[in-house]
Amino acid sequence: IDCPPQLGFLTLSALCAATSVLITVHPQMLDVMSMSQFLTMTGSLLDVVGNAGGSTSYDWMRYFVTRY
Fold first, then answer.
1. Core vs surface per residue 29-49: b (16+ CB within 10 A) or e
2. How many CB atoms lie within 10 A of CB 61?
3. What is the pTM of this model?
């Protein structure tokens, strides 16, 4: 499921339904910092989902560097 890089209902629903996660990132410092902030906020929101009874367990989570 390809989602936009924002924390909307579509992205959260996809993360809850996914069995694996592939994150693409450009090898530039601004993009890496943006990804870091995105993952921090996503982790906080998924903690809320977990506390509400939802489960998010992934077989694997990988980063893929693009435009290298």
1. eebeeebeebeeebeeeeeee
2. 11
3. 0.76
